[in-house]
Specification:
Elements lengths: L14 E4 L2 E4 L5 H10 L3 H5 L3 H18 L1 H9 L3 H7 L2 H35 L6 E3 L4 E3 L5 H10 L3 H5 L3 H18 L1 H9 L3 H7 L2 H4 L1 H36 L14
Antiparallel strand pairs: 1-2, 3-4
Helix pairs in contact: 1-6, 3-6, 4-5, 7-13, 9-13, 10-11
């Protein structure tokens, strides 16, 4: 059940609130979105709420990266072991990896530019949308939340910040893949060995092909939770402002530009 019945008469809508989360259009920096696609294919599209495309690119990145041993080659390159980096790379997978990687960056940049134009048109049309949704499994509604709290929970476990702001799909996706990365990288085992003072064993047990996914995963979860908390707060204020204007503002009230209102 929603608090607003959409008649689908608008050409564009600013937001949609459902039991799975709040999806909205807002202005984004195309270069930042492209940067996140470069950091990890799929992240840029997920920031745009293009979930299906983002999930597809994310899974492709993990599958092909692991088989091509790109992360292992990067670590050897950072250590100056260029010959070992060349040896570990599997060109059969690498040649498939590069075109899709470049596509993710280009497509996220292009999509951001287009969606910014759509947002400007939707903002001018300013059509209504539901701000409260209740179902048998979940309740979601527009509300103001603290961006710092979202960041704090994302620092503990990526995905918790998204749960805090009710981005259910992104939260589940991030948490599930975090568990996969933790398990196959053996980072938890390495941390325990490190606390026991067994530094060489902690280093040797780590799997670099999976380990290098984790920093990007943490960074995305933190940025996504913070950015969406801020934008959800803005959307809540706009929705409340429109509601008060329609239901409580006098029709004769006008703000004259350049003149003081007594």
């Amino acid at each position: 059940m929603d608090n607003y019945t959409n008649d689908n008469t608008a050409r564009r809508y600013k937001a949609h609130v459902s039991i799975l989360g709040t999806t909205q259009l807002h202005l984004r920096n195309p270069y930042i979105i492209a940067w996140w696609s470069a950091a990890f294919p799929g992240f840029g599209h997920m920031l745009l709420s293009k979930y299906l495309r983002g999930y597809a690119l994310f899974i492709w990145e993990v599958f092909v990266n692991v088989n091509a041993h790109v992360n292992s080659a990067m670590i050897y390159s950072f250590q100056g072991k260029i010959d070992m980096a060349k040896e570990v790379l599997d060109t059969r997978w690498l040649l498939m990896y590069i075109p899709v990687y470049l596509f993710g960056i280009w497509d996220s940049f292009r999509t951001t530019v287009d969606m910014n134009k759509v947002y400007v048109l939707a903002e001018r049309e300013n059509h209504g949308f539901n701000s409260f949704s209740i179902g048998a499994l979940e309740i979601n509604y527009l509300d103001k939340r603290n961006p710092t709290v979202a960041v704090m929970w994302s620092l503990f476990i990526p995905g918790l910040g998204q749960l805090y702001i009710h981005r259910i799909l992104t939260a589940l996706f991030v948490i599930i893949w975090l568990v996969i990365f933790f398990y196959y990288s053996h980072i938890q085992e390495a941390v325990v060995l490190l606390f026991l003072g067994k530094i060489k064993e902690a280093t040797s047990v780590l799997k670099p092909d999976w380990l290098l996914f984790i920093p990007s995963h943490y960074g995305f979860a933190i940025y996504d939770s913070y950015m969406n908390t801020v934008e959800n707060n803005k959307l809540f204020e706009k929705d409340l402002r429109n509601y008060l204007s329609v239901h409580y503002q006098s029709e004769s009230f006008k703000i004259l530009k350049g003149q003081k209102v007594k």
